[in-house]
Each structure stands twice: as structure tokens, then as C-alpha cells.
Amino acid sequence: MTPPKNVPLLDLKAQYARIKAEIDRAVQEVFESQWFILGPKVEQCERRVAEYCGSPYGVGVSSGSDALLIALMAERIGPGDEVITTPYTFFATAGCVARVGATPVFVDIDPITCNIDVTRLEARITERTKAVVPVHLFGQCAEMDPLLDVAGRHGLVVIEDAAQAIGAEYRGRRAGSMGDYGCFSFFPSKNLGCAGDGGMVVTRDEAKAQCLQVLRGHGAKPKYYHSLVGGNFRLDALQAAIVSAKLPHLDAWTAARQNNADRYRRLFREAGLTDGGPVGLPESLADRRHIYNQFVVRVERRDELRAYLKDRGVGTEVYYPVPLHLQECFAGLGHKRGDFPESEVAADATLALPVYPELSDEQAEYVVESVASFYS
Ligand SMILES: *Cc1c(COP(=O)(O)O)cnc(C)c1O
Question: pLDDT > 70: what percent of the chain?
Fold first, then answer.
């Protein structure tokens, strides 16, 4: 087989080529209007994304990180408070907790889903615990019913980090609609990406939505009268218009990602690499809709394989090489290697393979063939 020149981890040029006219028109409209900050395009995007996520209110913000930050601010979470999440996630999940002056408290992951191991949650709750932030990692929802049950019994706010999980479902409910707040990112590599930074918080509570709107504009209501200290967390119209233009394609993209995942499973099995072999496949649980922001395998000799694939033109990524409890900036939390073993094992063994919607049969076959030739 002649190797494809390259199989990138994500091919946004291929996506743009297919929807160029729609995106260009959306951008053009914003330029014609010269309305760049908030305004009707942002409101339209908020309505559409909130509806897609099964939540009544959406508040557009400047990034997924700021979505998490502003949700914590809206709950007045700060110094002396504890917020529970996992150490195996993108930095922002716990970084935002530290930024409001609160303390991140970690719970290890379930090795099957890489999401919070809810059976370990209750033991970490103290009288200082104010919130729990489940992360729907890689596009598959965390075990929400038992989590909501524990949170409800302890009066904890639930802030879903749904940055990787737009459209994912848990027992028929959409990611972001189950907790008090659902935080989304439109970073270009997410399944619904804009052309820069952007994000959204969805909520079913009107008062919370109003509070978020005030906080994203420096806490001013009315203009120039500040009862709260907020920040500039506004979503701009250009990004909102692009998100609205892409949203009608999202379900088809998700279906293509799911097909790609199924094809990988079949190809890896056919190649004899699974079931006791060097490649562990990700599981998609029956009560969930996995949207495959990433297709993450567990492999032997991960770093060597990654370098080998790079030489063959296959893009991969390690999400994430250093669990958060071992990050230098969190040294003050006093953790050491061994504290969250499942997160540490995952950080050492996982590898994300290209699963973007436009990935072709030949490209997928080439990826699996390359992995097979590494282990042969
Ligand atoms: C991408 C991401 C974020 C942050 O989103 P940005 O828009 O990049 O700020 C937060 N949490 C998780 C799990 C993410 O993947």
C-alpha cells in the first residue's frame, strides 16, 4: 500500500473546504453589520446551542476556560472553598478553581471511561466542599446519576465540564443539561469549533443565567453600575456566527466520528492487536452517546509508538501526559506519585488517534497498518 502523505490528528482544512460558502457568508454578514461584540448573532447562537444541549438558557463567553471560571464566580466560590474534580483532564478544569482562590480536590478516574470514579466521590467531601466538576472526557459522559445523587445529598453545585462533549448523552440527557451549569468550548479542535476562542455556559435556571450575563460584562447592571466584580468574558459576534453556521452539521460530523471509531475497532481486532494484544480500545457504554472528540487507545511502549507514527505521517496526541496532581503549580496541594494511580497509568499509556469526520477508509487503514507494523 502506498502510504498517504499524512494523516493529521485533525484536518480543519478538509472541514472548511466542505462548508466554505456557509462560513464565508456568516462572516460576511457580521462585517456588513459591524456589530462585533454580543448582539443579535450572539443571542441567536446562545438560543441554538442551548436548545441543542437540552437546556433553556445559554450565555456565550470568551472560552471554555472562562465558562468554568464564570460558573464558579456565579456561585461565589472562593478562598476556603473546595471543589472536587479529577486530575486527568485539561488543565483548565482545576486551573479555574485555583484562579478563584478555591482549592481543587481530586478524585481518581474510572479506568474504563477515564471519567470521575463516582464511588470515590463521597469520601472526599468535607464541610468546605462547594462544588463538583465532572468532566465528560473525550466526548463520553461521566456517570451522572450517582454523581447527581451524591451532590444533591451534600448540597453541592454541579458544574459539568462539557468542553469535549457537545451533544454527548447520558441516559437520554445531553451533556451540560444535567448539572447546575454546563460549560462548553468552541476552541477549534472541539467538535463544534469556532475561528478562535469561544465558549458557552448553559443552565436551566433563569436567575443563574442572568448572573452569568452580568458577570461576563464586568458585573455591570445597568451599564457602569457594578454590584459585582466580573470580567470581560464576552463572546464576539464573529465566533457566534461561525458556531451557528456549523451547528447544523454537528450531528453528521458526530455520526462520521462514531463510524470512524467503529471502523478502528473492527480494524484493530482484525489485525489481532486487541484482546490481550498491545492495543486497548476505548469503550462506549450502552447508556451513553459518545461523540468521540478523541479516540483514545491504551498502548504498550506509547512514546515509541508515537514517534514511529509521526515518522509515517500519522498525527497523534497524548491527552494528558502529566496528571494535574503532579503539576508543578499544584505542588502546594502536597500530592505525590501514587496518589491517583488510575490517572497516572492513563497519562503514561493513552494515545489519541485521528478520528475527525473527514478521515477516509484508506487513512484509517493506514493508521492501523502502521500501528500493526510497529508491533510486528
Ligand atoms: C478545551 C477544554 C477546556 C477549555 O476550553 P478553552 O476553550 O480552550 O478555554 C476545558 N476543559 C476541557 C476538558 C477541555 O477539553
Answer: 99
The residue to which cell 503514561 is assigned: 348
Residue 2 has pLDDT above 80, yes or no: no
Q: Ligand 1 centroid to 166 CA: how many Å?
A: 12
Domains of the chain: 13-248 (3.40.640.10), 249-375 (3.90.1150.10)
Interval between CA 249 and ligand 1 midpoint (Å): 21
Q: Which of 10, 140, 161 should be mutated for ligand 1, with most atoms under 8 A from CB?
A: 161
Nearest atom, ligand 1, residue 190 CA? 1
Q: How much is the pTM?
A: 0.97
- Side-chain-side CA neighbours of 16 within 13 Å: the count stands at 12
CA dihedral 238, 243, 194, 251 (to 10 degrees): -170
Flag whether pLDDT at 4 surpasses 80.
no
| Cα–ligand 1 centroid distance for 206 (angstroms) | 25
- Whether 242 has a pLDDT exceeding 90, the answer reads yes
Q: Which residue has the cell 472553598?
A: 81
